[in-house]
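Look at one such:
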Amino acid sequence: MKYVIRFKKTGVICFTSHLDIMKVFKRSFKRAGIKLAFSQGFNPHPKMGFAQPLSLGYKGYDEYMEFETAAEDCDTNGEEMLESLRALMPEGLTLVSIHEAPELRKTLASMTVAAEYEIRIPLCLPLHEDAKELWKKYMGQETITALKKQKKKKDPVIVDIKPKIRKLSFNPRNDCLVIDAVLDAGSESNLSPELLIDTAIRTLGIECDRAEISVSRLKLQFRQPI
């Protein structure tokens, strides 16, 4: 049976890597007595995966993970699994719900199309422009270019990130600038919030240490309901 877990990742555990979070779930399944199905082949691995890996330091309020149980564990109740797993989760990993997904033919990763973010940039001095002027100053550019690292090549390439921004708003406050953004996410088209942050800071003339900027992923969007 296939299942989908919805969870939140907040607090100190946000600084735990994606691979280590994967290990947390694997160990929790084992301790809870939930037998996972395994792939076939020379190097079998448990059938589980995340819709979209969360970058180190990011908070996640609408995260999804799919997994498949072994045939001998097909009668396991979803709510019972949820309660067992909740008791084993470290602080900051909050399991919200679990539901059966027998109709799920594609992976959640392949179905992900966009993600909603809230970015908070602290300000040393208040911005003079209002929200509308900030949006025009940034989105009014013909292109929004950024340096993007390539997976296989060492040298970064210049890319135009504007077509990957689905929705954007700036909300200046006395002590910070809040950016609400909906960006392409998934295997077909993906825009890292880091490129948005870098270009926004440069375009708007904001001086800020990256370590002081917080990023929260509020929601993932899929091609179809899951």
Q: What stands out?
A: The first helix runs from residue 18 to 31. The chain is about 20% helix and 35% strand. Helices lie at 18-31, 78-86, 108-111, 131-139, 193-204.
